């Protein structure tokens, strides 16, 4: 009797298990009636910044792959739209124009077969000049730190539209899909001032003049920032003498405008004023809140002239 009950229990369990497996394998969901969308997978971000110092040679360029149920053949057009964005201190973001405008349209014929996947691909580029004109500005009105927001709008042959307003977070951000439909192109000011330079101290607070070397080390976490190994450029050693020690002073390059920040080991802060800048010599004054000051002429290194600085 006990064995019969045990066998019956096993049979019942097996029937329940088989029933659940059947429901899992053949769910009562009409998958064949589901709608199918389309998206633009980012294959290569060839160029996604504009160089403030070379706007004429800058461009926004991508390689895209059209993914849909027909391997990309449902794409009718892709609109590329743009607007300009600037962060104004104390005010907030300013957009020009308020809504993005059309700068270029890709046609279905622009998407071609490739030897790396079954989906159709296209590559395009938009020059900085084209983007600037499209938003109604001139190159003279562009500043370092500005951003151009490029938005893609995919129109398919069924009349459907896909863009930032209906893309899911997963499709936009996941590496497999890589289809954000929007790309922010920043106006950047490349800076490459790190190095060891010879200099002449033309004036110091104690009246002494001399020559020496200064080391500028790039700050990894801050673009365009360089720590200097001696914020007095040898003046302490020549005038007292004293050593720089644990001082932390930086020279900051913001699109060619140099500033000096930080303090020495006594807590006094530093600032600078550029007097002149040529490819071979950068001359500036430094001063600290203790009243010490100096004028130095820093020489460029061979093959690496100073950029236009102020």
TrEMBL record:
<feature type="signal peptide">
    <location>
        <begin position="1"/>
        <end position="25"/>
    </location>
</feature>
<protein>
    <recommendedName>
        <fullName>DUF1735 domain-containing protein</fullName>
    </recommendedName>
</protein>
<keyword id="KW-0732">Signal</keyword>
């Amino acid at each position: 009797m006990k064995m019969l009950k045990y066998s019956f229990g096993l049979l019942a369990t097996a029937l329940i298990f088989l029933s659940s497996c059947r429901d899992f394998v053949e769910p009562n969901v009409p998958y064949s009636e589901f709608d199918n969308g389309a998206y633009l997978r980012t294959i290569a971000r060839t160029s996604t910044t504009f160089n403030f110092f070379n706007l004429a040679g800058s461009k926004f360029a991508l390689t895209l792959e059209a993914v849909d149920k027909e391997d990309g053949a449902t794409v009718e057009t892709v609109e590329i739209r743009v607007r300009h964005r600037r962060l104004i201190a104390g005010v907030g973001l300013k957009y020009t124009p308020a809504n993005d405008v059309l700068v270029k349209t890709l046609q279905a014929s622009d998407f071609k077969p490739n030897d790396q996947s079954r989906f159709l691909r296209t590559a395009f580029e938009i020059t900085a000049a084209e983007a600037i004109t499209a938003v109604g500005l001139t190159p003279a009105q562009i500043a370092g730190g500005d951003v151009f927001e490029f938005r893609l709008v995919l129109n398919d042959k069924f009349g459907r539209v896909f863009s930032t307003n209906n893309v899911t977070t997963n499709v936009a951000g996941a590496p497999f899909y890589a289809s954000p439909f929007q790309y922010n192109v920043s106006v950047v000011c490349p800076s490459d001032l790190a190095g060891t330079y010879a200099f002449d101290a033309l004036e110091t607070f104690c009246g002494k003049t001399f020559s020496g070397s200064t080391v500028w080390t790039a700050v990894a976490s801050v673009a365009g920032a360089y720590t200097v190994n001696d914020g007095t450029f040898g003046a302490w050693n020549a005038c007292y003498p004293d050593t720089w020690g644990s001082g932390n002073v930086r020279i900051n390059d913001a699109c060619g405008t140099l500033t000096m920040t930080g303090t020495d080991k006594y807590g006094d802060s530093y600032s600078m004023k550029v007097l002149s800048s040529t490819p071979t010599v950068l001359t500036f004054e430094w001063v600290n809140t203790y009243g010490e000051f100096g004028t130095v002429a820093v020489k460029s290194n061979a093959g690496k002239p100073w950029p236009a600085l102020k």
